[in-house]
Known about the structure:
Helix content is 36%, strand content 13%. The protein has helices at residues 11-19, 55-69, 89-96, 109-120, 138-150, 155-158, 173-183, 205-214, 234-237, 308-324, 326-347, 375-387, 411-427; strands spanning 34-35, 38-39, 41-42, 103-105, 129-133, 159-162, 187-193, 218-222, 241-244, 259-262, 352-354, 367-371, 390-391, 393-395, 399-402. A hairpin with a 3-residue loop joins strand 14 (393-395) and strand 15. Helix 2 packs antiparallel against helix 10 (308-324), helix 4 packs parallel to helix 5 and helix 11 runs parallel beside helix 13. It has 13 helices and 15 strands. It is α/β, with parallel strands linked by helices and 428 residues long. It has a seven-stranded mixed sheet, with helices on both faces. It has two domains: 4-30 and 325-427, Aspartate Aminotransferase, domain 1 (Alpha-Beta Complex); 59-321, Aspartate Aminotransferase, domain 2. It binds pyridoxal-5'-phosphate (PLP).
Amino acid sequence: MSDPGRCDASEDWALGADAADPLGRFRAEFCMPQHEGRDIAYFCGNSLGLQPRATRKAVTDELDYWAELAVEGHFRGRLPWMDYHEFVRDDLAAIVGARPIEVVAMNSLSVNLHLLMVSFYRPGAGRAAILIEKSAFPSDRYAVEAQLRFHGQDPGESLIELAPDEADGTLSEAAILAAIEKHGSRIALVLLPGVQYLTGQALDLATITKAAHAQGCVVGFDLAHAVGNIDLHLHDSGCDFAVWCSYKYLNSGPGAVAGAFVHERHARTTRPRFAGWWGHEKTTRFEMGPEFRPTPGADGWQLSNPPILALAPLRISLEVFRRAGFDALREKSRAVTGYLEWLIRERVADVLDIVTPTEPARRGCQLSLRVKGPRESGRELFEHLQRDGIVVDWREPDIIRAAPTPLYNRHVDCRRLIESVARWRSAR
Ligand SMILES: *Cc1c(COP(=O)(O)O)cnc(C)c1O
């Protein structure tokens, strides 16, 4: 595979690198949308991952069980619905570097963020603030502001926003640590992304957690763009909680069931929570008693019985990750993203600036690209790529995101993207 020191820009080189890719066979496990009779070049796995071919049958199997077994499907069938969320637990724990008791698949990301803030944002005397980044994803910002107001806090005072301090709009670790140090005594919760959605920058969760804990703050992470993309060691990072969605790199379909992590040290917490019957201790749940006794661990935050038709795709997707092996995926991810970066610098450096950090440890597979010149040229290029069967995404005001995901992207896809950019430049 590609070592940027040894790339060349020819198609033959890209084809050779793909032929040598031990994960190349996984591409055929995904449905590839078509454009004018050929596969599109899909760089949008950061937004909606492609459909694994096995997903359709997994969903129709559950529809069949429902048709044939009706209520008995809770106890019979290959994977009885009663315990269905447990069938994804081990794979989910593996992909985020957690212990099984620390993870649960449930709800959607923003819902989980609220549920965990109910437990982990507990403003007290003199310590009521939440630290987020200034360019936080809107939903996270809305959720944080809503929590502040819910607790009678004034966001003008209690929302601390960390502005990007690096030239490309990224955050230096020094700035994050300085803000934690400076405001630590009044911060109740530090909430940061694992990978920043706009810039693709990856943060060091363990370092941030350590600094925030030293100041007595609770730490949560939004891993929407990190899960299935970068190596995560949530347990060892020591963070208190984390949430993520599963329709991006986890390829589990639009609106897929999301995930949550609660560190083992909180497995038997007495913190307040918004309780529902599925969070009740499993062995006594059906005694239907009036008193809520939470299941130890992340399972205790569940409200409702799980959506089986939505969990089936997640189960399939996590199986694909398990078979591919995350270390191998990450290695390919570094290589292909490194190749894309190299191609940009070599072929179209006069058109595109790379916003995402260069160091492999500070990014996943996504590259955020700023088109030189006025905003309109960025839109123009974006639309040109679309017409050319190349799917990237556009984020206001001026960012094109391209994420070569290692499960289904190839070197030749990256080359096709860059050659298309070069053609656009020549035609202007
Ligand atoms: C994608 C994304 C979300 C989406 O939230 P949903 O509740 O799944 O709609 C939230 N936060 C971040 C940082 C994201 O990237």
